[in-house]
Design brief:
TIM Barrel, alpha/beta, 8-stranded parallel beta sheet, 12 helices
C-alpha cells in the first residue's frame, strides 16, 4: 500500500480507502461480511475510511467504530459527514443555509457520530452537501471554528455536489476547508479544470469518490443489470443512463491494455493525478478488498494511456435521478 500526504493535515493516508456507503443497506450487504472486509483492508494497509451518518442512520459509522476499537494499536483516520437537515440531495442555491446546517443540527450530529465511532474527536467532519451561496453566512465560520476549538473535530471538509466541482471553490478560499470530497473518474474529469489546481495551491486534501462511476467501471454491470427498487442504484442506472453509460464503457474496453482489468484502469487513472490524496471505493467483499488494495502498488498509468483516456471525458449536468 502506498500513502500520500492528506493536504495540510500532515496525515499519511492510504491512497486506496474503503467507502462504507454500500455496507449500510445496499442490496447484498451483510454486516458480518462487511466487518471482515474492513478488517482485511486494515491488515492490507488501509488507514483512511469514509463514512456518513446518512449511510444507514449511523450504521456505517458504527461499523467503522467497531473496526477502530478492534485495532487500537493502529492509527485509523475516520472521515464522516453531517446530513442536511432538510434531507435533500444535492444542495441547491435556493436552499437557505439555516434550513440545512443550523448550528444546533451540526453539533447534535457531530456528537452522535462521535459516539458511533467511539472517539473523542472526529478526524474529518464534512458537510454532506454544499453550495457556495452559503459561504458568507456568519454561522458557517462560527460553527466550523467552534467544532475545532472544542475538540469535537480535528479537520473540516465539504462533500461537493455531483458534477459541480467548482461549487466549493469560494468556500475553500475562506481557509476553513481542510479537505474536499469530489467525484473524479475517467468519465468525470472536470475537477482537473479549476478545483484540483486550487487544492494543490492551498494544500487542501482531495478525497476522490465514485472513481468506478457507481460501478459501471467495476466490470460487473451490463446492459441487462437491474437493481431492487429500494437500492439507490436502481434510479441512477435508469434505462437511459444505463444505455448511455454502457455505450461509453464499451468504447473504453476497446483500449483496455492486455492483462489490465477495467476497475484497475479506472482506479489507477484516479491515482495518476497528484492532487488526489486518496480514492475511496466500496469494498464489501474480501476479494474486492484484495483486488483494489493491490492496485495501489501498481502506481499511475502510462502517459500514453492517460492521454488516450482524456478523450473519454464526459461532461454531465446534475439530473433529478443523479443524487
Amino acid at each position: 500500500m502506498k500513502y500520500r500526504k492528506f493536504g495540510r493535515t500532515g496525515f499519511d493516508a492510504s491512497d486506496i480507502a474503503p467507502g462504507l456507503w454500500g455496507m449500510s443497506g445496499w442490496s447484498g450487504s451483510n454486516d458480518d461480511e462487511s466487518m471482515k472486509s474492513l478488517q482485511l483492508s486494515v491488515d492490507l494497509g488501509c488507514n483512511f475510511f469514509d463514512t456518513a451518518w446518512a449511510y444507514g442512520e449511523g450504521k456505517s459509522d458504527g461499523l467503522l467504530g467497531k473496526t477502530i476499537g478492534q485495532n487500537k494499536g493502529k492509527r485509523l483516520f475516520a472521515a464522516s459527514k453531517i446530513p442536511p437537515k432538510n434531507d435533500r440531495w444535492p444542495a441547491l442555491p435556493s436552499y437557505q443555509y439555516h434550513d440545512v446546517f443550523p448550528p444546533e443540527h451540526v453539533f447534535k450530529y457531530a456528537d452522535q457520530i462521535r459516539k458511533q465511532l467511539g472517539t473523542d474527536s472526529i478526524d474529518l467532519l464534512q458537510f454532506h452537501v454544499w453550495t457556495d451561496e452559503w459561504t458568507d453566512e456568519p454561522d458557517f465560520r462560527k460553527t466550523v471554528e467552534k467544532l475545532k476549538r472544542d475538540g469535537v473535530i480535528r479537520y473540516f471538509g465539504l462533500s461537493l455536489n455531483r458534477w459541480e466541482p467548482e461549487n466549493g471553490i469560494k468556500a475553500i478560499r475562506t481557509g476553513l476547508v481542510d479537505a474536499v470530497q469530489v467525484i473524479y473518474s475517467i468519465f468525470d474529469q472536470s475537477p482537473e479544470d479549476e478545483l484540483f489546481p486550487l487544492c494543490q495551491e492551498l494544500n487542501v486534501g482531495v478525497i476522490d469518490r465514485v472513481a468506478l462511476d457507481e460501478g459501471s467501471l467495476g466490470g460487473k454491470i451490463t446492459r441487462e443489470t437491474k437493481f431492487p427498487k429500494d437500492d439507490w442504484r436502481s434510479g441512477y442506472f435508469n434505462p437511459e443512463n444505463l444505455k448511455n453509460t454502457m455505450d461509453r464503457v464499451d468504447k473504453l474496453k476497446e483500449i483496455l491494455p492486455r492483462g489490465m482489468s477495467l476497475p484497475e484502469m479506472a482506479l489507477r487513472f484516479a491515482l495518476s493525478h497528484a492532487a488526489v490524496s486518496t480514492v475511496i471505493v466500496g469494498m464489501r467483499k474480501l476479494e474486492h478488498v484484495r483486488e483494489n488494495c493491490g492496485f495501489s502498488d501498481k502506481g499511475p498509468l502510462s502517459p500514453d494511456l492517460l492521454k488516450e483516456l482524456k478523450m473519454h471525458r464526459w461532461d454531465r449536468k446534475p439530473a433529478p435521478w443523479s443524487d
